[in-house]
Design goal:
The chain is of the alpha+beta class. It contains four helices and four strands. Helices cover 41% and strands 20% of the residues.
Length: 90
Amino acid sequence: METITKHANDSEADFLLYTTHFCPYCDAAKRLLKEKGLTYQEFNFDIDDAADRYTIVSETGHRTVPIVIDIRGETPHYVGGFNETMSYLL
């Protein structure tokens, strides 16, 4: 999880959120985090380094967006997509 760890170390947010444009689940994940009073740093695969998409998929095994990572602890914790994030934050 080298790329995720680098992103986590460079961020002051609570979560990392990997997204794309026109993704209703990405929008729902952002709303959910905001509703819970949690901050996130977004990396949009359509805008940011497209090569990161393949690296993040390789590091997590998650092929769809959003990809949500909890970075509040000592090490980044892969949460999953929107449904997993909803369960995780309950």
